Amino acid sequence: MLDVRKATVELPNGKKSTREFVVHPGAVAILPIESNNVYLVEQYRFPIGKHLLEIPAGKFDEPGEVPLECGKRELEEEIGKKAKTWIYLGYIYTTPGFSNEIIHLYLAKDLEESKMNLDEDEFLEVKRFQLMNLKKWC
Questions:
Q1: pLDDT at residue number 131
Q2: Domain residue spans in the chain?
Q3: From CA 114, how far away is CA 27, in angstroms rounded?
Q4: pLDDT tens readout for residues 83-96
Q5: What single DSSP character describes residue 99?
Q6: CATH architecture of 25-137
Q7: What is the DSSP letter of 73?
Q8: Dist CA 115 CA 110 (whole Å)
């Protein structure tokens, strides 16, 4: 799953140094909003030993996959919904100190029911929250 690499780099002062980094395929994260509700997923994350509440997200299946297509697939897989309206919000680099992971962000609206299709090693619970309550957490 991990592609860890080591490279020798030249620093601005001309000296050489070693950098280890993780090559990541990229991912998409979706904020699905319906009426005054937002859908999140709760799942256990082994590296930190906790259940986390997250927006639906997933990695690209293949190099060159279009972010919007990945987002559509992941939304349906993780929360069992499709969206008629997709708004691109930009992208973030999650941990640029040691990885090239990029996550494209979307707002998904005008949701309609579909079918969840989780991976066999994926265990999560869909949670629906009113936006007003979510704002209180911040």
A1: 85
A2: 25-137
A3: 22
A4: 999 999 999 999 99
A5: B
A6: Alpha-Beta Complex (3.90)
A7: H
A8: 16
